[in-house]
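ok, trying the design again with the full structure, not the truncated one.
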């Protein structure tokens, strides 16, 4: 014999007020989190560009050593300092790429087109005190370094190698972006550094 059902008890649920409060909290968290996430992504694009430039310089130097001849790393810097680059074999005794000399290229599209760079051939701007001032995107282009058969930047009349490249993000403000710099030493070694670190911090990433 079936028993009559009594009133349902112990049923859990949300009231309309609870749902509205939960949605308001979610909206607030999103408003806080989305800008921080966007800033993180923008700085990640800067790092990807800096690592790409560092890799290109390494390719050019190793190819120069392997070939015992001149190899150029170059960045055209079109559209306000885009970060694509080309590594090519240089004609014997010259400072221009051979017609069939392309070794490797990178278009810079990995950063969604927002990464930009500025460059300089002024050796005074690789002093530690000079990194407080950023190189403007598009400045100093085309950026070019020719490595000789010993893997050193070429020393020749009427030729100046790029010695510093600043990587930035065109979609970010100066206060949001954490720019990075790539510096090429007289020996040909290239390194990435962080201008935002204090020179007396003891951090190996300091410029």
């Amino acid at each position: 014999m079936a028993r009559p059902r009594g009133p349902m008890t112990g049923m859990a649920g949300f009231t309309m007020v609870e749902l509205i409060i939960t949605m308001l909290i979610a909206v607030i968290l999103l408003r806080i989190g989305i800008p921080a996430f966007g800033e993180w992504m923008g700085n990640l694009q800067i790092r990807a560009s800096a690592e790409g430039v560092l890799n290109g310089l390494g390719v050019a130097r190793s190819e120069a050593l392997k070939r015992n001849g001149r190899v150029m790393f170059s960045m055209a810097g079109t559209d306000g300092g885009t970060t694509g680059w080309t590594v090519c074999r240089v004609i014997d005794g010259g400072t221009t790429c051979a017609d069939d000399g392309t070794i490797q290229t990178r278009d810079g599209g990995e950063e969604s087109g927002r990464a930009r760079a500025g460059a300089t051939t002024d050796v005074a701007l690789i002093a530690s005190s000079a990194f407080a001032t950023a190189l403007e995107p598009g400045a100093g282009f085309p950026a070019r370094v020719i490595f000789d058969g010993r893997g050193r930047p070429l020393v020749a009349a009427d030729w100046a190698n790029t010695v510093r490249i600043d990587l930035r993000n065109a979609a970010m403000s100066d206060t949001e972006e954490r720019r990075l710099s790539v510096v090429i030493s007289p020996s040909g070694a290239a390194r990435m550094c962080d201008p935002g670190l204090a020179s007396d911090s003891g951090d190996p990433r300091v410029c």
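Keeping the full-length input from now on. The beta strands are 71-75, 85-90, 97-106, 115-120, 143-147, 164-169, 180-184, 190-193.
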